[in-house]
Design brief:
By secondary structure, the chain is mainly beta. The protein is built from five helices and 104 strands. The strands form 22 sheets. Strands 83, 84, 88, 89, 90, 93, 95, 96, 97, 98, 99, 102, 103 and 104 form a 14-stranded antiparallel beta sheet that branches. Strands 27, 28, 31, 32, 64, 65, 66, 67, 68, 69, 70, 71 and 72 form a 13-stranded mixed beta sheet that branches. A hairpin with a 2-residue loop joins strand 98 and strand 99 (1274-1277). The termini are far apart.
Amino acid sequence: MNSKFLIFICFVILFLCEKALGGLIIRDVTIDKNASTMYKLQGGCSYSLIVLVIDDSSPSQLSINTNSNQNMGFYVYAFSGVSYKNSTYSSTIFSISISSYSGDSEPVLIASNNIVNSTLFLPLKCLEIQTGQMTLLKKTDMGPDIFGLLSYQFQVGGLISNYPSGGISGYNSMSSLMTNYVYYSYSSAPKGDIPKSPSTEFVFSGLSVSLDGYYNNTNVDSVTNFKRFPSLNQDVQLMGKSFVPLFTFESDTPYLIPGFSLKVGTGFTFPNFYFRPISKKNNITTFIGAYGYINNGVLADYSFYAQNQSTSTIRDTFSFNIKEFNNNLIPVDTNNITQINNWLVIDFSSNSPYDFTPFYITHLSTKYYNFPFGFKQGGTGGYKYSATFLLPDIIPNSQNISFSTTSFLSSDGDGFSLYVDSPNPAPYNPPVYVDHKFDHIYDSFYLLQFKIESGNPIYKISNDYRDYFITTLSSGTDKNGWFEMIVDTRRKFTFIFTNQFKYFTPYIDFYYSPINLKPFKIPPVLGNIDFYNEIRDASILYKTMNVTNSKAGNILYFNYTNLDIQTPISLLVNVPEYMVQQIQPVIILPEEYLDKLVPAIWNSTINMFQVEFFLPKNSLPGKIPFALFFKNDLFILGQSLGPNAQFNVISENCDLYGPIFENIIKLSNTLIDDFFLVGWNLTISDPINGFGGGYIIIKGSDGSIYNKTLIPTDNIYSDTYFVSVNISIPCAKQTLTITDVVLFDTGNNNSTFSIFNEFEGFYRSLFNPFINFIDDNSINKILVNCITEATDGTPPEIISLNVSSDEIDISSNSRGVSISFNAVDSESGLKNGALPMVYLSTVDLDKIECPITMNKTLDKFNSLYECTVNVPLGFGYPYGLLISIYGLVNNGGTFGGYSTADLKGKGFAHSINTTFALGEPVIEGVGRISTLGGELWITGKGLLGVDYAILGSGKFLISKTIGNSAILVTGIPPLIQNAKYSILVFKGAYISNSIEFIPYEKVLGSPSPTETPSTTPSTTPSTTPSTTPTIKCAGSPECGGSLKGYCNSGNCVCFSPWVGVDCTSKIIIVEPPRVNTSDPSSEIETPTSNSSNIEETAVYKSFVALISLRELDFNDVIINQYYFSKWLFSEISPLSSRYITNITNNDGKPISQVTAITEWFTKETNISFAGSDLTMNPSSLKYTISIDSYPFRDKLCRLELLMSASFTSSKTDDICSSQEFITTASSSSSSSSSTSSNSYDDNESSGSNNYLKIQIGDHSMFARFLKRGIIDDKTVTIDNRQIINDDKTTSTIENSGYHSSALIGILIPYFKNYSIIDPDFSVIIDHQSSSPSSPNSICSQTSNSGLSKSSLAGIIIGGVAFFFVIVICIIYFLYKSNPVPFKLIKQRIFLSCFISKNFKSKY
């Protein structure tokens, strides 16, 4: 037989056998192709591999057997991962772990489908590092870093695979491998009595990295003015959990991380010694440190050490017996947990009073619940707890649920737990991740789109740091669809959960789908980019930053040899808020640092990356640590960027310490009318930055809660604030406790206190505002003793309840819910000021609060309550929301509440259904945009197909869309610094919600970026980029010359008394106008002489009036117009008046109120309005106009306030009038430096404004209309316009050479509560008279008539008589046809009479 035929027959037989038994394939699919080559550590190598097993017979289960590797000297383990199965084949990905491998034989993996096996040999390489093989390529100096550690970076050569960081050791240090053989070695401050710098050594290669020591052995750190808090008492009972005793001292240490240490007992160095600098002056730094404790209630000796040349010596010793703050435990013998289908009801009780301890519930994840949630009834004699929780339909296997006063079950048996069964016994089918892709949006934000196939509906998607609900679904269904989430690559992101279950989830650098073997890799993927060596041309704009009493800005420039310019890079400039002598095993960007990161942008003008950053006022001086981050665990230290990138900070008033209580006086049991006044007089001190605000929470043992906001007085450096509570009589004996304090200074340094502090540890003590009262653990408590004591053990009762809607669409923009109820207490009555709380909860222990927004007391025993909340997007789908109400308090010292089960038992509404739909656009966030304007990213859901965006009064098209969750808006004009803007989008018939943002400030001297090219330029300048080109100012010479003003970023800054856009006009000092008691119109008279100074005197008169208020729709079509009529006048001062009028609808009912305050300034005065500093010149009139809540037709409408301004001269011949409506350049175009307080136009400190200039001859009326106002406590952009072609309002304006009038409309955007605007007016002398060539000029000629004066008189008298007949007819006709504008006509007639009466023509 032919040999070829025999071979063919064999292949056929093998093929048939394989098909009969199933085709089983196993292969190595490890993503990192170098993972099979490792260097030996401690005699062996370790590997992590990925293996794929595929079988076309679709078995029930695939497995890998590793038993054949036993007794081979190494260990092999296989862990099953993601599986996929259909009718055709099955596949499973396995994670393979191999350890202690020396290279003597090949590990073997045997895959099985329970019928046949398939074998895979792993050809691994385990290499020995030879002496001298490894070389040091690059290293940096050792120094303080952004984590508060001493560190340095270095790169080694001579390797073909990564050297394990476990083979690196050194004194007091740890090392971490980053990438491209770059290592980061770090250490805390030295422990013990040796201030020795850390070192690094590659143990098995003989390579040592030697650096100059950070600590100089000749240095001696002085320690003076040492103070302990408390100063004498050894026994200290803590007033809050972990708020330990403190000490402060001064030192001349030159180090940012000094070699201070604390020892407890004999030789034990305290591992968690926390300290931090709080101020620095003249090279003397004041520090604060915390006396942590090891054993609760044990007297211990504390010794504080500081460097003394090559050793450390004791500088202070003291003994403390520190007793921890005690909290009540949950009694384990009185609990009852009942599962009723999807409801889990937890009940327990205690005979001890509630002490404000939060309760922790763990079910897949841990959530904490604060009072009053769950408290059904209680008081000083104990409490009953009852809460209802919602479970999902299907729970895979039985899941444990625990309840405790700590985040874990403590050893003393606190709390209880049980297993929860799945309400639906149907099997749980884990999801399969089918596909994914990442798209870069902006900065470090990417859109992750991924497809999931699941046997059960997906209702929640979670990653390391956030829960996303069903609204992440962009297409398909909740069982088979594409989902989207915005990923911030600066944050830790290692997994995705579905429905809170950790089943078959994608992990970073691991395949998440055996279908297409697509790895789950978090961008940016740098590949072979040597991020450490290829950075070049790093430089800083300002080598010195002065932050004394004001913030300062700077710019870091750098470039890369081979890097995509879209790669997200962020700068972190940071001095950690505290130091600790403890090294963390893994260095990763802490979550609290995210807000401090500043993204780098590509500046195509100079072909470089640049980062603009600011340092706060009075921050720490010296060289401040910084780093460039690519990911949360991949960064370059600032010292790696070279000397040209370093900068020094000057801070002569360094203040890092928040406000503290300097003195506290209790005020208790003061009887006032029918209640007790109880409280604290708190003296708050902050001598450098000053107190900026804060809040205090007071809780009563009867369950009452009071939130107190602290607003700074005029004396921000030290003043007394009275925080009080009114206790109704009769009352119950009780204790009021300050449980929480948050205080901020004007530099945003904080002081905080909370009686519970489980997660944050001793370091929070460094911020304790009660530092002066640590030895008095009762200073935050007041005992209330009632003269007439009420005894009422029955809690208040709810007798009715109403929910605004029994179903909400949680994917829409209408997610508001209102819940109203009527509560009574027929015995002692409801406690005044103690408001209950409404809760909406759903599965996975999630809940939201619905605070009371309306409380109407019907009588002492009966009150109505209403809460309103906007349900978060996607929250509660598909299982709905459960309603519960807690925190009802009576005067007898008893609190009560209702669980969902209780409400249902009473027959009340107790739940809300939820629905979901695709399509409606909802905005969740926006990107960054500077004051220069440009482009803005919008993120959310349903954004695919958006037509356009609305920002202010502008309409902007969408230039780019990514998925269903991100759109790019371009063409945005320059924006005002510190102003708040809101943006919304239109999509067909849908209108989205609006979202607010504040543009970020530009740094003075930064080159303006132009359009970013799509590829990296081939060359990059090596020199530091130049600053912004000079922008010309108005005038010739600029700004009137050096004696009148100077140019700053395109705007003139004028020296008094010069004003105007070019500083060539001069202020005229005149008498204050007569007070008008009828309406807020003002007449300013300006007498002056003509140029010859010997002939007749000319008089100039200005007239300002408020005309009307009108509502405009999106297209500026007038919807409603209200003409002002009756004003209520009151005098504030001789130079200031208040006018109030009501806006009424067609039925005569008031719908809003307008208040106008006029103020005359007799001297130059600096004022503030809408976040800007303004200068009011002498003889100027300012209006402050506020409008109360107005019933807009919809949120796209706005109001327009009409103001008229007229200027008239008594000289009527040979004179010209002109008008200009001017807009000055915005300061944002130049991006003011934080270190400068220079003004921009008319001594104003920020922003573009509109100016109306009406000139007659060489005199002008000058009006300033600010382009910002205050809307609902926020500074927003205001538009102003001159109204010229408006028949209803401008038809009566007739201008001439000696009279000129203008109508100005001030456009006010939508608001809820109130709006405030602030125009002002003054009269000035111009250097040049108005002429026919002036803007919008009208000129009057000298009369040459040959008629006699008597003839002229006859003509005029006849003409006037005829004129009045015509006017009367017209007025009668207009009043009959449309009486509303009659007020406007009347004011115009008044203007005519005013002109005729005061300025008679000369003939």
